[in-house]
Amino acid sequence: MVLMNEVVKVLPVLALMLGTSACTPRARVEQKETPMTDAQELGSSLTEAAPSNAITIAPREGPTSHLVVLLHGVGADAASFQSVARALARGLPRAELVVPDGFHPFDGGATGRQWFSLRGITETNRPGRVREAGAEVSRWIDGELDRRKLGRDRLVVVGFSQGAIVAAWLAMHRAPGPAAVVMLSGRVAEDEVAAKAVTSTPVLVLHGAEDRVIPVSVVDPGTKVLDAWGARVEKRVYPDLGHEVDARELRDIDDFLRRALGPT
Predict the structure, then answer these.
(1) Strand partners, 235
(2) What is the DSSP annotation of 208-247?
(3) Would 39 be classed as within a structural domain?
(4) Do residues 56 and 97 lie in contact, with contact meaning Cβ atoms separated by under 8 Å?
(5) What is the pTM for the complete model shown?
(6) Radius of gyration over alpha carbons of the chain, in Å?
(7) Is residue 69 helix, strand or coil?
(8) What is the domain count for the chain?
(9) Is 148 exposed, middle or buried (0-12, 13-18, 19+ CB in 10 A)?
(10) Is 218 a member of any domain?
(11) Does residue 82 sit in helix, strand or coil?
């Protein structure tokens, strides 16, 4: 079965926010979640559990107050997402921002990285793959927090597309929960029913109404799941936005993080 691809765009207006065009990332490929045949189902070849590369933006002021981890989309890499990190860093002077490569090579193309495979993806098996990816990322995050002598509650996660799917899992399953989570153009993939509200993490859900990769119809069901786990959810849907990041979203993220984190 042919896989449909869409270019993930970080709109050029980011360059205006950053004051330079040099920071606009190169376009990367985001793969649509189109099921393949059983014969093409993922085997056991993915064995890595750490980024091959990570881009770090140091705090501008004082000691580090929070660690902000940014998770890119499938088929992309850290370099493609770094201008989003640089835009957000302007409003987080005491935070350290880290953009890791996806832990596994992208198995749908010659380049890029992924958090979990889309081969043979279905509504039934997606939650299990997200659970495995989320656990891997969570263990890595613990190590990064420990290296910086930061508590588990000093974490912020910002994810785009597949990275947002993993970010949602982290919002529900890390204990204590992150200080804040931002989901850009993502979805919630969860097959475990919350027995009780176990997290109070503030979660900002941002999505384009014209998204053709992950449709906006997944937003409301996903927010209900997050609510059931106890997350404090805010959502924004942008009527003329596709599967991309633009300046309106960055402004909304900046406002959300200022409110969620307080002075940093």
Answers:
(1) 205
(2) ETT-SSS-GGGHHHHHHHHHHTT-EEEEEEETT--SEE-H
(3) no
(4) yes
(5) 0.85
(6) 17
(7) strand
(8) 1
(9) middle
(10) yes
(11) helix
Q: Is residue 62 part of a domain?
A: yes
Q: How far apart are CA 42 and CA 123, in angstroms?
A: 15
Task: Classify each residue of 213-225 as buried b or exposed e, where b means 16 or more C-beta atoms within 10 Å of its C-beta.
Answer: bbebebbeebbeb
Q: Which of 218, 215, 217, 207 is nearest to 241 (CA)?
A: 207
Q: Looking at the chain, how many residues does it have? A: 264
In contact, 213 and 243? CB cutoff 8 Å: yes
SS3 206: strand
Q: Using CA atoms, how far apart are residues 133 and 208, in angstroms rounded to an integer?
A: 25
User: Measuring CA to CA, how many Å separate 127 from each of 27, 114, 133?
Assistant: 28, 16, 10
pLDDT tens series, the chain, 264 aa: 223 333 345 554 444 343 433 233 333 334 444 333 333 333 333 344 678 899 999 999 989 999 999 999 999 999 999 999 999 999 999 999 999 999 999 999 889 999 999 999 999 999 999 999 999 999 999 999 999 999 999 999 999 999 999 999 999 999 999 999 999 999 999 999 887 788 999 999 999 999 999 999 999 999 999 999 999 999 999 999 999 999 999 999 999 999 999 876
Closest CA to 251 of 165, 182, 194: 182
Residue 146: which domain range? 5-31+49-261
**C-alpha–C-alpha distance, residues 69 and 73, integer Å:** 13
Residue 36, domain member (yes or no) = no
Please give the torsion angle defined by the CA atoms of residues 10, 60, 65 and 143, in that order, rounded to the nearest 10 degrees: 70
Answer whether 48's CB lies under 8 Å from 104's CB.
yes
